[in-house]
Amino acid sequence: MDREAEFRRLYEANRAAVHAYFTGRTGDPQSAADLMQDVFLRAWQHLEKLTDMPEDRQRAWIFTVARNLSVDAHRHRHTQAGAEQALAYEPVRPSQPASTAVIAAERVAVVGAAIRGLPEPQRVALTMAAAGGVTSAEIAAALGVPAGTVRYRLSLARRAVAEALDRYDDLTEK
Amino acid sequence: MSLDDDIAAWAATVRLPDAEAAAIFQRIAGTPVPFPPFSPRLDPSWWRHFTADFTARMVASTRPVRQAA
């Protein structure tokens, strides 16, 4: 198999999970795309080493790079993240003329605000599961934590989102 | 609408679009590949030859010198 085809296989198998991981950490899909590019650039440069590994170790290697990159990126964006965190707690107010599309958009905004307000470990787990399409066992392997811990974080995160939606529903019914 | 549907609807808004993912792939695959560092290596049979030669010299050097009659 040629180099580019091998890299494409690796990229397609992992890009969604890596992008979701960074979205969970940074709260910003665009920054996540930039960070994901940095991770896969390193994978491209070390492809010979990666192709000798089994698939689970390839993903572990990729997420080790991702975790190290993410920490650095967070250091630079510390101030910005603080501002985002503060904004995340602003309650979403339902608008009066509520068409189906508007309600759907508002519910997405409520879910997004609730997720941004979660503690980082819960936010990362839920974003990886929902946007990255990875199982709790795969998240656990990628993050280097027990699968039970990931399931617990997902459960707490889902409960927080459900409560935010309940509050929204209460406001719209009044 | 179920909680899963609400979360899935939000996830669709943050997921990386395929076109952007493809553009990132092209950018990365277009970067030059670093050459592996050059490391001169000895022939793998070197140690075998060296050991055989060394052993032969040792055996020859410990052989008693034949005295002239």
Task: Describe the model.
The complex is a heterodimer of chains A (174) and B (69). Chain A is mainly alpha-helical. Chain A is 82% helix and 0% strand. Chain A is built from 9 helices and no strands. Chain A has helices at residues 3-26, 29-45, 47-51, 55-76, 78-88, 100-116, 120-130, 136-143, 147-173. Chain B has 3 helices and no strands. Chain B has helices spanning 3-14, 18-29, 46-62. Chain B starts with a helix and ends in a 7-residue tail after the last helix. Chain B has 69 residues and is mainly alpha-helical. The A-B interface holds A 3-4, 7-8, 11, 15-16, 19-20, 23, 29, 32-33, 36-37, 40-41, 44-45, 47-48, 104, 107-108, 110-112, 115, 126-127, 130-131, 158, 161-162, 165 and B 1, 3, 6-11, 13-16, 20-21, 24-25, 27-29, 31, 33-34, 36.
Would you spell out the secondary-structure blueprint of this structure?
The complex is a heterodimer of chains A (174) and B (69).
Chain A (H helix, E strand, L loop, with lengths): L2 H24 L2 H17 L1 H5 L3 H22 L1 H11 L11 H17 L3 H11 L5 H8 L3 H27 L1
Helix pairs in contact in A: 1-2, 1-4, 1-7, 2-4, 6-9, 7-9, 8-9
Chain B lengths: L2 H12 L3 H12 L16 H17 L7
